[in-house]
TrEMBL record:
SUPFAM superfamilies with a match to the protein in the record: Acyl-CoA N-acyltransferases (Nat)
InterPro entries, per the entry: Acyl_CoA_acyltransferase (IPR016181), GNAT_dom (IPR000182), YpeA/RimI_acetyltransf (IPR050680)
PROSITE patterns in UniProt: GNAT
Source species, domain of life: Bacteria
Protein name: Ribosomal-protein-alanine N-acetyltransferase
Organism for this UniProt entry: Tsuneonella dongtanensis
Lineage, broadest ranks: Bacteria, Pseudomonadati, Pseudomonadota, Alphaproteobacteria, Sphingomonadales
Length: 151
């Protein structure tokens, strides 16, 4: 039977270009899910939670701390993109964080990730830069930008 870790990893493998070195391994995701403050959400391409026999088309992974949360990962499979699923997943993460009484949601993005346009449209503001944070598979170093959303 397919479990949620399988669903997350299927999306991870389809969504992230290996060049950028942003995808997490199965071990990293599995370990993070053993912590009670790590939360995930899955959506199908119809933007609902998958049934037990269904694949996911997108997921989010969030780390919650008192008052502040971090969107660790958001991903949608290429064939389901551009239809608002990424927006729906982030909206859901914001709502969950609000329910846990967080006041800010942070995320880190590679400076040239086109997802930044979506983050900005949703109200995230750049608050800092981390030099050479990502290393690409061909050895380039790329800065990360830290974004925050007041929720
Ligand atoms: C970022 C991501 C989750 C967005 O998912 P989505 O379902 O397409 O999101 P939406 O349909 O709600 O929004 C699409 C918007 O995202 C932005 N965008 C993100 N990636 C893009 C890309 N590769 N090319 C063009 N626009 C992109 C655009 O602003 C786009 O708006 P548009 O459709 O009006 O052009 C998806 O592109 C993805 O999985 N990317 C790879 C993984 C990744 O980089 N994740 C973020 C870092 S953890």
């Amino acid at each position: 039977m397919m479990d949620d870790l399988d669903r997350i990893m299927a999306v991870m493998e389809a969504a992230f270009d290996p060049l950028w070195g942003e995808a997490w391994t199965r071990r990293q995701v599995g370990d993070s899910l053993t912590f009670p403050h790590t939360h995930y959400r899955l959506l199908t391409r119809d933007a609902v939670e998958p049934r037990s026999d269904e694949q996911a088309a997108g997921f989010t992974l969030v780390r919650a701390a008192p008052g502040e949360e971090e969107l660790l990962l958001v991903a949608v499979v290429p064939e389901a993109r551009g239809r608002g699923l990424g927006h729906a997943l982030i909206t859901q993460a914001v709502a969950d964080a609000r329910t846990r009484r967080a006041e800010r949601l942070f995320l880190e993005a590679r400076h040239n990730n086109p997802a930044i346009a979506l983050y900005r449209r949703m109200g995230f503001e750049a608050i800092g830069q981390r030099k050479d944070y990502y290393q690409t598979s061909d050895g380039q170093k790329l800065d990360a930008i830290t974004f925050a959303l007041r929720i």
